[in-house]
Amino acid sequence: MTREEALQRIEWAANENLIKLDLSGLELEDLPPEIAECIHLVELDLSENQITSISEHFGYLSNLTKLDLRDNPITDPEEVLGQLSNVRELDLGNKPNYLKRRGNRITVKSDKA
Predict the structure, then answer these.
(1) Where residue 97 sits, what CATH number does that domain have?
(2) Which residues does residue 21 pair with via DSSP β-bridges, in sequence order?
């Protein structure tokens, strides 16, 4: 799986106005700018990639409420939350394991309970 595969999936999601997109396991180091065309996305799975930070392209995904970033070497989880104001469910794996935002309130949940 490659960046080419990611671009094909992104193009398909944009053309079909999909609300869910799975880009997991594609060895992505960053999010392709073409993701900005997927304005209808509500859920995005980017787990099992090599993403270290969130790009400005996330700002175009105003309908995004659920984002899975498990198994990525994210260096600053707070940066993720700052750029994704509409996201209510954010899975970062163990950084902490699960963050949930309600309004302006963010609660941290761990699956290690």
Answers:
(1) 3.80.10.10
(2) 44
